[in-house]
Design a protein that fits this description.
By secondary structure, this protein is α+β, with helices and mostly antiparallel strands. It folds into 2 domains: 5-64; 82-122, no CATH class. 45% of the residues lie in helices and 16% in strands. It contains 1 helix and 4 strands, in the order H-E-E-E-E. It has one helix at 10-64; strands at 82-88, 91-97, 103-105, 108-110. Strand 2 and strand 3 (103-105) form a beta hairpin. The protein is rod-shaped, with a radius of gyration of 37 Å. The termini are far apart.
């Protein structure tokens, strides 16, 4: 090809170089546009993540505020006023007393300290 270069028409070479430069500029513009769109998408995704995280944190704080300074019962979910271990003939049992007078022990709930009432799934 270098052997043909001295015989080449300068106008044709100039047109080819201009065409190649225009093609390169067009491709660069496409890549730069894609880059800008990706940067924008990442920024919006970051903003959305922060927004959703704040919403979930607010919901979590509101849920915890229902019974401040009280543990939820692992059996029924109600607030507990006292968690204690009772000695029984079978061994120790964890008892969760609730402010309304009911108590849960070992997955069963009793009203007012009477005999435990079986849960619906225990039949």
């Amino acid at each position: 090809m270098e052997a043909q270069l001295p015989n080449a028409d300068p106008a044709v070479l100039s047109r080819w170089v201009k065409a190649l430069l225009e093609d390169r500029r067009g491709r660069n513009a496409i890549v730069l546009g894609q880059t800008r769109r990706l940067i924008h998408a990442r920024e919006r995704l970051r903003q959305a993540t922060e927004y959703l995280d704040a919403l979930l944190l607010k919901a979590q704080n509101e849920a915890q505020a229902l019974w401040p300074d009280k543990l939820p019962c692992p059996h029924c979910g109600a607030p507990t006023s006292l968690v204690r271990a009772e000695q029984r003939a079978e061994g120790h049992t964890i008892v969760h007393d609730h402010p309304n007078g009911s108590r849960c022990e070992g997955g069963q709930q009793s009203i007012g300290g009477g005999s435990p009432r079986p849960r619906p799934g225990d039949r």
